[in-house]
Design brief:
With 145 residues, the protein is mainly beta. The protein contains no helices and ten strands.
Length: 145
């Protein structure tokens, strides 16, 4: 068995069930509830996450986090048929994701709060090499907490 990349250890903080609330600039004033569940694939080499949202404009998604030769990577798939690859890290209480595509760059920072029971996150986008702008804001609360 291959030894688990030590950078994956921080992702233990995500394991479990979460309730979420998301907002997006394209839907002013709308708060979208949802859920997210994270678990380790047997062997502990890959973290699997599944999210569901209660609005037709917000896709449900599946993600897989693991290590490759360049560090940690997250593969993302959603109900629209979108497939993306992000770099990722979870250190010092901040979960980061980034994708440096020149046409549609994205980055996310989610900060753990309340002793790890809340994650306050914001996605930003930069289209066609332009300026970063706020995109999806999402807050996760550990379910049952």
């Amino acid at each position: 068995m291959t030894k688990r990349d030590p950078e994956l250890e921080g992702f233990d903080a995500l394991v479990g069930a979460w309730d979420s609330t998301a907002t997006h600039p394209s839907l002013p004033g709308v708060q979208v509830p949802g859920t997210a569940d994270f678990e380790w694939l047997e062997g502990g080499q890959f973290l699997i996450g599944r999210s569901r949202n209660e609005h037709p404009d917000f896709p449900d998604s599946l993600l897989v986090v693991g290590a490759d030769d360049d560090g940690l990577v997250m593969h993302y798939y959603d109900s629209r048929g979108v497939e993306r690859v992000y770099r990722t890290s979870l250190r010092d209480g901040v979960w980061r994701l980034w994708r440096d595509d020149p046409e549609f760059a994205q980055r996310f920072a989610g900060t753990f709060e309340d002793g790890g029971s809340t994650i306050a996150g914001l996605w930003e986008v930069a289209e066609h090499g332009g300026t970063w702008v706020d995109d999806l804001a999402i807050t996760y609360h550990r379910a049952g907490g």
